[in-house]
Amino acid sequence: MSAYVELSNISKIYPTPKGPATIVKDFNLTIKKGEFVTLIGHSGCGKSTVLSMLAGLSEISAGGIILAGRELCGPGPDRGVVFQAPNLLPWMTAYENVMLGVNQVFYTASTEERREIAEYYLTVVGLGESMHRKPAELSQGMRQRVGIARAFALSPKMLLLDEPFGMLDSLTRFELQQVLIDLWSRNNLTALMVTHDVDEALFLSDRIVMMTNGPEAFVGEVMEVPFARPRHRKDVLEHPDYYALRENLIGFLNTRAYTLKGLKPPHDDPSEPHAEAKHQPAPAKPAELSKPVTMSVA
């Protein structure tokens, strides 16, 4: 299958009082249509910078990006973006926040058709009974559901997710990961997500792109994720390759993210986690997840 998204030798350079600072250098990545790819790496390695350039929110210093055969220049409705904080307009209801984008993208559709689009996606993410509440009346998890609905409602060519669950508690994060993967599967969208969470990356992704440390970060390694779809957490944790893949990811964060740049890891014991990796406790054993969990809207 040919590439649907191509990031070719992209770089991002910021001016500083001490001269130009290169955050990302010669970053190359191709993504197939319908593929879910995750970027992972240490803080400051440029993950969100890459996503921001792809979203058209940050200018590309060098190189180029092609989406569906067209070179990108600036933001557009062909890319739906979900941020860590959904940034809803506080004076509007959840429904009205979603309708803002729907009205812009589907301006030739009837009022009824546009209403149905917004209501459908808000219902699918679990907000059927809360869509007419304002953000102040919603929990953080519910506000993030609005952000997810808003992105999907635009029917974009690509979905971009910048640590979308980073501000949520563990239970809400697990629930929204399942909401996201189910909705993504229905729509067959091409997706690129940034995360610090190795278990989240393994659960959601078809491939995981590991970035070296910055500055001048680049693609260090790419891991194929073999878990079948549709995907459920218990099945993933029971897969015979799960813990080996997890250890490989943590090993990259602990050691290879440094050595690929010619740097010495800041610790000598490879079994001692470092940086993001030290905040990755082992997930619950499959037996602990054998009972069904009742979905709550949080």
Any overview of this molecule?
- It is a single chain.
- The chain is of the alpha/beta class and 298 residues long.
- The protein has one domain: Rossmann fold.
- Helix content is 33%, strand content 21%.
- It contains 8 helices and 10 strands.
- Helix 3 crosses helix 4.
- The longest helix has 18 residues, at 170-187.
- The two termini are 39 Å apart.
- 40% of the residues are buried.
- The model is unreliable at 270-275 and 287-296 (pLDDT under 50).
Integer tally of domains: 1
Residues in β-strands, percent = 15-25%
What would you call the shape? globular
The number of E-state strands comes to 10
Q: What is the CATH architecture annotation?
A: 3-Layer(aba) Sandwich
Helix and strand succession? Answer: EEEHEEEHHHEHEHEEHH
CATH C-level: Alpha Beta
The main sheet comes to:
6 strands, mixed
Protein structure class: alpha/beta
The gyration radius over C-alpha positions equals 20 Å
Quick check: average pLDDT?
87
Helix segment tally: 8
CATH superfamily grouping = P-loop containing nucleotide triphosphate hydrolases
Largest sheet, spatial ordering of strands: 6-7-8-3-9-10
> What proportion of the residues is helical, as a percent range?
25-40%
The poorly predicted ranges are: 270-275, 287-296
Within the CATH hierarchy, at the fold level, what is the topology?
Answer: Rossmann fold
